[in-house]
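Notes, Module 5: Reading structure tokens.

Key idea: the token line is not a picture. It is a compressed description, and you learn to read it the same way you learned to read a sequence, by spotting repeated patterns. We will look at two proteins. The first is printed below with its tokens.
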Amino acid sequence: MRWRCSVCGEEHVGLPHDWAFEKPRYWEGPRGPDDRLTDDLCVWTDDAGDRSYFIRGLLTIPVVDGEDDFRYGLWSSLSEASFERVLELWDDPRRTQEPPYFGWLASSPPGYPDTRGLAVDVVTASLELRPELVLHDADHPLAREQRDGITLDRVREIAEANLH
């Protein structure tokens, strides 16, 4: 599929099936001795010395007129207890039996109103997969899109917003 970007005017081939964010929106680099950022997990200490815990997961949006879903690789906050439980079961196949962990979305995809305050369930999956992020029902475009799906034209709009 070829398409012309309405922002830069360039022609692109194919639409993305996923878009990933490398870090939670709050990460500003390590500040405390235990701060770390990996591809999947993050611990961050703020200016007041309070620690925050994050996990990266996949927020899947059905594409109603396409062959594949669209996925965002986004970050969610976790409580310290939930984060410790995730670490405890990281390499354990029993983690798929865990109930969802509660979190707050900690990524801001371009093209949407502010996502701060969007509640999310972090559903752990098999060892080979990142957790699934399922937004709580909310009157927010991202939550509606996850629930109702999007079109290929909307995927193109998302690509344009994220490329520029």
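Here is the second protein, with the sequence above and the tokens below, as before.
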Amino acid sequence: MTTTTRKTETENLTIEISLTREVNDKVAYMDGWNLPAGREVYETYEIKITSKRNGATITTSGKPGDFAFFALQGEYSGKYPAGAYARVGDAYVSQATYDLAMSMIAELAAEVSKTTEQIALEQTEIAHAATVEAVLDTEAAEYARQIENGLCLRCGSYCYGDCTTN
């Protein structure tokens, strides 16, 4: 597990963002059975925005795209207060704050090092995707060969048109 924190202060705000990456077991919960479903890289952001004027704090955590994370105006049904650009949890932030936080998140994502287990897992996923693509290409080529040899697309056999004569 790797964790990196970045803190930025402006005239009015203190923004602190932490990124944690770890490899966890995936579990499929099926009718009371907990089935192991491999491993996955899991990353979580924790964001804390504190106002220097009144001491109010906004905190949220999750992955980008989660509901509690930054939601732009078009993604949330409802009216935003004047000057608000995005919703963070139950609070609203301006566009400048949003842009600063998102740039910090991008820097953190590039900065956080990956463990050897994460690298191995990503390489395994890439190899698996290549294998699946090769199998699909082989099946598509086999199906095309069968059609060339007279496979009927209507009935799925080699009827040579007899299925439409009745």
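Summary for the second protein:
- Residues 19 and 108 are 7 Å apart (CA to CA).
- Residues 121-164 form one domain.
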